[in-house]
Structures are given as C-alpha cells and as structure tokens.
Design brief:
alpha/beta, Rossmann fold, four-stranded parallel beta sheet, 5 helices, 6 strands, globular
C-alpha cells in the first residue's frame, strides 16, 4: 500500500436520524434555498423533515432539477437566488442536484456573464466567492458530495465546472 495524505474540507454528517441535526450546520439567520430534482423528496417526506429541521429560517424551494442538470434550469435558480437575496443553498438529492447547486453557488455571486463561467474544463472557474452550500444526499452514487466538481448540460453538450 502507498502512503498518502488526504485533506478534504467537506464535513460529513452520516447516520440514522442525523437530518434532525441540520439546524446546527446552517446559520440561524440564513435565507435558505432548498434545491431538488423530482418529486421523491416530497413523496417520501424528506422535504418535510428538512423544513422541520430548518425551524424558523426563511426557505425557498426550487424543484425540477433534471438528471444532467441543464444550464437554463440552473440559471432560473440563480435568478431567484439573486432576486430573493438567498444566502445559503441546500441540495437535496443525488449527484445532478448537487452539481447544479454548486453552479448556482458560484454563478449567483459572479460579476461576469454566466455562460463564461463554463468551458474552463477542469481548471478552476474564475470567481472569487461562492454562496455556502450543504447537501442532503438521498442517492450517494457519484461522489459529488465529496468534491468541488460539477457537470451541467448546455444544449447537447455536457460541461464540467470546477470551483477551487
């Protein structure tokens, strides 16, 4: 076996009934956007549990993030974040929801045209800040909760986005 050091500033909170602890990880005065894909988070009561855990925080929902999230869909979320002055993002779902939310996090604070944030390959996106985000992983498959990479679909082309 090879020796190695590994550092990843992602905090993982894992285990049964840990969703109730969500309150400890999001600032009390945060205005939270909860982003999700299809209806399974509603159908299985996940959104209700999240709403309960978030307590009195103002919450805005953004659903309908498709598998392989589309640039246009995520730009709708960016517009809402900016208009409503959201200051914390919470992705609820699998890799596509997490990837799309990562884009929203840095696109919402960017000064440049949003399409210019794409097409950097695996080089860092040229932004100086991003909104804080958390993930409630309902489908752990892609590892998106553990890295800074994301993928968006623009027209018919899948584009990586990388945030340092």
């Amino acid at each position: 076996m090879q020796n190695f050091d590994f550092y990843n500033p992602t905090q993982i909170v894992f285990g049964q009934d840990r969703l109730a602890e969500l309150d400890k990880h999001i600032p009390q005065n945060a205005k939270v956007m909860v982003l999700y894909g299809g209806g399974s988070v509603k159908k299985f009561g996940t959104l209700d549990k999240i709403a309960s855990a978030l307590g009195s925080r103002e919450v805005i929902e953004f659903g309908g993030i498709e598998p392989n999230p589309k640039f246009d869909t995520m730009m709708k979320a960016v517009e809402i974040v900016q208009a409503e002055k959201v200051d914390f993002l919470l992705a609820v779902g699998g890799g596509s929801v997490m990837d799309g939310t990562k884009f929203v996090a840095f696109a919402s604070t960017a000064d440049s045209e949003h399409h210019t944030l794409l097409f950097h390959g695996f080089n860092p996106v040229p932004v100086s800040e991003a909104l804080p985000l958390g993930c409630v992983v309902t489908l752990p498959a892609t590892g998106s909760e553990m890295n800074h990479l994301g993928w968006l679909l623009i027209m018919t082309r899948s584009i990586p986005s990388c945030r340092p």
